[in-house]
Amino acid sequence: MGRTGRRPGQQDTREAILAASREAFAERGYDGASIRLIAAGAGVDPALVHHYFGTKDQLFLAAMQAPMDPAELLPPVLAGGVDGVGERLVRTMLGVWDSPAGSAAVALVRSAVSNELIAKMLREFIFNRILRRVAKGLDLDPAESRYRVSLVASQMAGLIMVRYIIKIEPLASAPPETIVELIGPTVQRYIAGELAFPPVSGRK
User: Fold this and answer.
1) Which is nearest to 25 in space by CA: 62, 80, 78?
2) Angstrom distances, CA of residue 168 to CA of 101, 108, 163, 165, 171
3) Distance (Å, rounded) from C-alpha 65 to C-alpha 87?
4) Is residue 109 one of the residues assigned to a domain?
5) What is the pLDDT of residues 27-41, one digit of tens each?
6) Do 86 and 42 reside in the same domain of the chain?
7) 133 to each of 109, 114, 145, 146, 178, how far by Cα in Å?
8) DSSP 8-state secondary structure symbol assigned to residue 19
9) Pairwise CA distance, residues 77 & 58, whole Å
10) Based on the domain organization, do 78 and 157 belong to the same domain?
11) What are the tens digits of pLDDT across the range 139-159?
């Protein structure tokens, strides 16, 4: 009987590209990791990277094993402008984590706790693929946006840890809309409220 499925070597090539991309994204960030650089690290032609994964954004999501694509989820969140965006962000995040994709998200966070490579990629994913898009989409003041999105990240990360990783009650089993009502206003304040910001240093 003839062999079916992928041709020999195809899966190895794909995995080599993913491994090279994880290293490149972790070391250089999304902006600094080019398709040509990743292809060189995998020992393949850049055209093969596009063949397997399409765009750099799609490759990044595959390398992260991301449970969602921010490019699809964020436009409706940002479409309403600043008013109510905190509640929309929390509601959207809960929608992902409470869905079947949530188990993959939990696994990703747990891996990041013990694996520095994954932790670097997760930071890149959160700040550059999600929070930077939020800051740009809402036209936040550049002098304040890094503090604001960092505060949003701290609130979201704490919620994720308490509800989905450690599972502290009653927050772990609270209805999503209850959490939106309780935490949404805090996220809204971080995004658009009056905050006393310390001087911004030049250090990244």
Assistant:
1) 62
2) 21, 19, 6, 9, 6
3) 26
4) yes
5) 888 888 899 999 999
6) no
7) 21, 27, 11, 12, 26
8) H
9) 21
10) yes
11) 999 889 989 999 999 999 999
